[in-house]
Amino acid sequence: MTPHNRAKKGDIAKIVLAPGDPLRAKLVAEKFLDQSRLVTDVRNVLGYTGLYKGKEVSVLSTGMGGPSIGIYSYELYNEYEVEAIIRIGTCGGLQSEVGVGDLVFAMTASTDSAWAHQYNLKGTLSPCCDSSLLLSSIQTAQDRGFTFHAGMVFSSDLFSSYNALGEDSWRQWARLGALAQDMETYALYSTAAWSKKKAFSILTMTDSCVSKEGLADTQRIPALYPMIETALETAWGML
């Protein structure tokens, strides 16, 4: 056990799906997993382990932001011997071709965070995803007809709508090719690299910074299903 996770060794599977929202973890456990059981609920950060097509998979919420996912991913990799974490999160679209509800596969992440300062590097770290998880997800999305985009995401410490630099501060990142903005992928990929483990972010674009379109409240849950299914199929293929 850790200060943030009351699961015991063996309670958590080798591959973990990682949504930010605790209720999304609960949704995955109840709707997509068989024989799911709650293994941790410290601070109401919910974690479950169950079976997907007969293979054990865990899902653990990680909260919002790089520091939060950094804590949970570090402990999963280094205390619970997890081999791979697949983030299943939402993001804001930064390109016109990324439609509301589309999947975004984060090949690499840029950031405005000081997260990588802890590594005492002499340059700028640009962490990337695990290629096997990326290729598996692409195959699943193609087989199921899900619309997806693969490329760079921008992980910010600042929620775009509350950014004091102005609501158009994302445009320079978009100019350099960022497909979408989230808050967690950079910290996850960096922690995976440091821990010599695997990580991948699959994101659902819920609100476009370009068109200002967004999912209606009634659409927000079902719009996540392609992302969840893709992540589970990818996890199943790695087990």
TrEMBL record:
InterPro entries: DeoD-type, Nucleoside_phosphorylase_CS, Nucleoside_phosphorylase_d, Nucleoside_phosphorylase_sf
Pfam families assigned to the protein according to its UniProt record, in alphabetical order: PNP_UDP_1
Keyword Glycosyltransferase recorded: yes
Keyword annotations from UniProtKB, A to Z: Glycosyltransferase, Transferase
Transmembrane segments: none
Membership in a protein family: Belongs to the PNP/UDP phosphorylase family.
Protein name per Swiss-Prot or TrEMBL: Uridine phosphorylase
